[in-house]
Amino acid sequence: MNFDDVNFENRKCSRLEAYDQSKLACFLFALELNHRLGKKGYSTISLAVHPGFSRTNLYRHSSFLRFFIFYMLRFFDMSAESGSRFALYASSASEVKGGSFYGPSARVRKSL
Is the pLDDT of residue 3 over 60? Predict the structure, then answer.
């Protein structure tokens, strides 16, 4: 995470790097929010969820090369519906823990 230049004002903006940095920022936010909620004594929790490599239109406007690579990887992806199950699990299961990450291996919780 480049905290000195989060908006790519002093370096060339790379779409993929910007995307990766935005995802990391979301994880860091979830962890910090959970920490602050717990410190104040709230029962509300914060956690992070990732759908894994899901078949969405995320790369539809990418360069031909990137589109082609993701097209070839389509045999390893999962449907958008399957990817959404992690968010559904994290938002509804009673055993979820704040400050945790839920993704393609939802049965194995990893602390952020």
Answer: yes
**What per-residue confidence (pLDDT) applies to 59?**
65
In a domain, 1, yes or no: no
Instruction: Please state, as a whole number, how many other Cβ atoms lie within 10 Å of the Cβ of residue 85.
Output: 16
Rounded-to-integer distance, Cα 34 and Cα 31, Å: 5
- The whole-angstrom separation of Cα 112 and Cα 35 is 11
Report yes or no: 48 and 32 within 8 Å, Cβ to Cβ: no
Cα–chain center distance at 4: 22
Task: Judge whether 63 lies within some domain.
Answer: yes
Residues 45 and 90: beta-carbon distance below 8 Å: no
Pairing of strands 54-55, 78-79: parallel
Pairwise CA distance, residues 56 & 77, whole Å: 10
